[in-house]
Amino acid sequence: MVTLWTYYAPVTPREVSPADYANALERLHTGMRKLDVPAPRFTDRVEQARQLVADRDRTPALADADRELLGDTLRSLRRVIGERGGAEQLLHGEPHPGNVLTTKNGLLFIDLETCCRGPVEFDLAHAPEEVSEHYPGVNQDLLRACRILVPAMITTWRWDRGDQLPNGRRLGTEWLGRLRAALDRNGLDIHG
Predict the structure, then answer these.
(1) For residue 130, what are the CA distances in angstroms to 17, 88, 149?
(2) How far apart are CA 156 and CA 66, in angstroms?
(3) Handedness of CA 64, 162, 58, 113 (dihedral sign)
(4) What are the residue boundaries of the structural domains of the chain, listed by start?
(5) Helix 168-185 vs helix 64-84: crossing angle, to nearest 10
(6) HSE of 42 in the Cβ direction (CA atoms, 13 Å)?
(7) Sequential DSSP letters for the chain
(8) Half-sphere CA count of 126, side-chain side, radius 13 A
(9) Pairing mode, if any, of strands 116-118 and 100-103?
(10) In this model, does residue 192 exceed pLDDT 60?
(11) For residues 175 and 153, is the Cβ–Cβ distance under 8 A?
(12) Residue 89: beta bridge partners?
């Protein structure tokens, strides 16, 4: 058997500090800036989620009001983030805690199949909130918009008839409530 993967011996799990997480993500972004490879833009993933919301055959259990909320949020925030004009680069695409591996040489990000181009704030929106406090040069307005866009995308996937995440529908319902609260808290009008 041939593999191109590198094996990293497990280490005793420890809590990852927000500063260490931010430092590892910044190092990853610095390295990715040097790569010139074709990759989709983050907006392609947003569009895939928007098309899923619009497809009643694939999302039959999604109530009309929730369908409208998700569709409007995805469309509006995609536009808002595009207008804010953050510098775009190659990103991990989903650097959430489940994609961080603790090794004896420090933190490593795994599962790079969702790489895309976009502002670093899109990646930061997948990380715990405290991480962005340690990441230099963050556009806070852009990050706030991404912190609503990313959960809207993830919530949409939970309503896909073919979703296989355990408890996915329960999470989708819970996340719809969180999405409404985040929109209210941030005073965003997604219908404009």
Answers:
(1) 9, 22, 18
(2) 10
(3) positive
(4) 18-185
(5) 60
(6) 29
(7) ----PPP-------PPPHHHHHHHHHHHHHHHHT------BHHHHHHHHHHHHH-TTT-TTS-HHHHHHHHHHHHHHHHHHHHHT---EEE-S---GGGEEEETTEEEE---TT-EEE-HHHHHTTS-HHHHTTSTT--HHHHHHHHHHHHHHHHHHHTSTT--STTHHHHHHHHHHHHHHHHHHTT--TT-
(8) 22
(9) unpaired
(10) no
(11) no
(12) 118
- CATH for the stretch 18-185: 3.90.1200.10
The identity of residue 188, as a single letter, is: L
pLDDT in tens, 106-160: 899 999 999 999 999 999 999 999 999 999 999 999 999 999 999 999 999 999 9
Task: Tally the residues of the chain.
Answer: 192
Asked if residues 135 and 50 have their Cβ atoms less than 8 Å apart, the reply is: no
CA–CA separation, 189 and 192 (whole Å): 6
Structure tokens at 13: 């799990």
Q: Tell the residue number behind the tokens 């809207």, with chain if given.
A: 152
Query: Which two tokens mark 138?
Result: 């963050």
The count of other CB atoms within 10 Å of the CB of residue 130 is 12
Do the Cβ atoms of 90 and 117 come closer than 8 Å? yes
